[in-house]
Amino acid sequence: MKNPSISTGIAGSLDLAAARKQRQAGTRRFTAALLALGMGLALSVGLATGIGRMDIGWHTAAAVILGKLGLSTPIADRTTEVVIWGIRLSRVVLSGLVGASLAAAGVVFQGLLLNPLADPFTIGVSTGAAFGVALLVMLGVGGSFLGLSPLPLGALAGALAAMVAVLVLSRESGGRIRKESLILAGIVVSTFLSALISLIKSLDEESLSAIVFWIMGSFSGRGWIHVGFLLPYAALGLGLAFSCHRELDILALGEEQSHHLGVAVSRVRLLLLLGASLLTAGAVSVSGVIGFVGLVVPHLVRVLAGPSHGRLLVLSAFTGALILIWADVVARVLLPGGQELPVGVVTALLGGPFFFYLLKSRRTRGMW
Amino acid sequence: MIRVEDLNLGYGERPVLTGLNFQVNPGEFVGILGPNGSGKSTLIHALSGLLPARSGKIIIKDRHLDALSSRLRAQILAVVPQSSEVRFPFPCLEIVLMGRYPHRKRLGSLTDEDLLWALKSMRRTTTVHLQDRPVTEVSGGEGQRVVIARALAQDPQILLLDEATSSLDVRKKLEIFEILKILNETQGLTVLCAMHDLNLAALYCRRLMFIKDGGIFRDGPTEEVFTPDILAQVYGTPMEVIQHPGHHRPYAVMLPLTPGELEENLSEVAQA
Questions:
Q1: The sheet that has B207-212: what strands, in order across it?
Q2: Higher-scoring residue by pLDDT: A144, A88
Q3: Is the CB of residue A19 less than 8 Å away from at least one CB of chain B?
């Protein structure tokens, strides 16, 4: 039976040709979607950078960016350059990266836990990461070592601890995890940790503003240095998640069948949890808790691109970036008089109703 | 092909099977029979590497089962579970292609050979027409045939079935066992199936292994062990075995419990 000369009668080769064509059509659709999203993303970065309190034309914004990238001679004055490059563009890039990280984390959590309601926020991992950050701020651990902040590490520890706590709480006697109890455990853990964060805030007046600044779920005042903090976490997390995308598909068959198909289940699961926690921790440590991006984006993309996790991860990362860039633009310009909304408020306003729709929807139940 | 030596199995503190010794040769078609809770599924779980042995050895093709890597094990051994629920609407072809996982390189793309194997497996299980249908939308019998196609796509030498047809109607059961029979006879596939249906087992399995009270009660060619005596002892109820005049295979007929036997049962229950 090994190395068979596979019989390909005429019927066989017809089947093969048809199946191959079918799959190639899928690949073409994926490539087209990727191209469209990529162009949309590039366009959005430009547009979002041009929008803000100080009225700078898009023409000037483009000129500054191109100048900075060394593609044309710098023309603008110092102030304009700082606003465009130092403040706006860094913020747009950061919101894009955070959006991509959260959406990819959502794909992994949903696939791994076989739960349509799972995302970094609903299962308490985000709050865990925020708690880790708050604890470090209270203890006065800040600053940066060799350009790396310890805060993301605190966020990672918090995220992993919260993940473990939620899994332990929601595990029933048979070792099965029911989807409702997982979300309930997530709520329990995140409520508890939120209370602890409040406690830290009231115990330690000095760190209050610093903690509030981190936790609120906002990109206000973030810059390139935060992009630098997030980048290694995002890259590693995305890499881990993507390298296990095929296993993530198979894990949808359940633990036993994945084992039968030759997946080293425990190891793969650990890698994926680590990847998703890295993504969440990185995102939370630079922008605080931003909910629902990781919930909504994978669902939207799954409806359009199908369940295969490799494609889902890539397309969700792009879509998440796109959505959070624009959510942040809304947060910046919505209130009159120059005040800013935390971007977490914007995503919650959009995502809350969607969460409700998922809970209610028959169609989605059929899909899962 | 499979050699089991002094194998002890159990969950937590509770022993289920003790002191198992047997050997399965290439190309055998073995049925594992026994009452509920006798440990049929436990044995299948252990043979598939899902349940670690408490003590003893399982040797697959001259190698210790737990020394095989996940991938290598899945290249030799495929398993069809009782039922499988898939949570995502993967097309059936993608499900069958998952069977190629142990043969594919870590990040290598899908080859024509993988696709051919998947299609060939689907032809053998008459599921080609389902290839584009979401697996969440096919019927129970179709779904089970897709799962068997996936197991065949693994290109295994041993196929383990755990009550794989228990939830299907008569016609679907027969279809699946006909497929297994053909694969067994033409490809030399070694088949072990844990099952409940005595007559289905007698019809297709050439060797039967009866499990009772934590051990192997009888093990031998179907014609020798499928007897009224043994069946009555294994299942605790009187049975008659008749040679079918058409296909010349034995079949079992259950007899109603006599009042005496029923009382005996009831008093046992009362004592427990």
A1: B77-80, B158-162, B190-194, B29-33, B207-212, B215-221
A2: A88
A3: yes
Average pLDDT over residues A8-20: 69
Question: A10 CB near a chain B CB, below 8 Å?
Answer: no
C-alpha pair distances (Å), B32 with each of A247, B18, B225: 32, 16, 12
pLDDT at A194 exceeding the cut of 80: yes
For residue A23, list chain B residues with Cβ-Cβ distance below 8 A: 110, 115
Asked whether residue A15 is assigned to any structural domain, the reply reads: no
Contact A1 B187 (CB under 8 A): yes
H or E element: which one contains A305?
Answer: helix A293-305
**pLDDT tens digit sequence for A54-74:** 777 777 777 777 777 777 776
From residue A353, alpha-carbon distances to A108, A292, A335, A363 in Å are: 22, 10, 22, 16
Query: In this predicted structure, what is the pLDDT of residue A54?
Result: 73
Domain CATH number, residue A314: 1.10.3470.10
Contact B48 A260 (CB under 8 A): yes
Supply the pLDDT for residue A252: 87
Counted domains in chain A: 1
Provide the CA A216 distance to its chain's centre, in angstroms.
17
For an interface test with A, which of B48, B116, B121, B123 has the most A Cβ atoms less than 10 Å from its Cβ? B116
Q: Any residues with CB less than 8 A from the CB of A162 and at least 6 apart, and which?
A: A124, A125, A127, A128, A129, A131, A189, A190, A193
- Chain A residues in contact with B191 (beta carbon < 8 A): none
Q: What is the pLDDT of residues A248-259, one digit of tens each?
A: 999 988 888 999
**Residue A28: inside a domain, yes or no?**
no
Q: Tell me whether A262 touches chain B (CB under 8 Å).
A: yes
Which run of H or E residues covers position B8? strand B2-11
Contact A368 B131 (CB under 8 A): no
Choose among B74, B87, B188: nearest Cβ to A261.
Answer: B74
- H helices within chain B, ranges in order? 40-47, 70-76, 92-97, 112-124, 140-153, 170-187, 198-204, 222-225, 228-235, 259-271
CB–CB contacts below 8 A, A to B: 108
Tell me the three state secondary structure of residue B29.
Answer: strand
What pLDDT sits at residue A1? 40
Domain that holds residue A137: 53-367
Q: Distance, in angstroms, between B151 CA and closest chain A CA?
A: 8
Paired tokens of A15? 């089947």
Greater confidence (B58 vs A18) lies with B58
- What pLDDT band is residue A144 in, cutting at 50, 70 and 90? low
Query: Pick from A1, A19, A253: which is nearest to B131 by CB?
Result: A19
What's the CA gap between B25 and B20, in Å, rounded? 16
In a domain, A19, yes or no: no
How many other β-carbons are positioned within 10 Å of the β-carbon of residue A255?
16
Tell me whether residues A308 and B115 touch, CB distance under 8 A.
no
In a domain, A36, yes or no: no
Task: Say which residue, A76 or A99, is predicted with more confidence.
Answer: A99
Smallest Cβ–Cβ distance between A252 and the set B78, B87, B104 belongs to B87
Q: What pLDDT does A75 receive? A: 67
Residue-level pLDDT at A100: 97
Nearest to B137 by CA among B126, B146, B149, B148: B146
Q: Which residues of chain B have pLDDT under 70?
A: 265-272
Q: Which residues contact A67 (CB under 8 A, 6 or more apart)?
A: A73, A74, A75, A76, A81
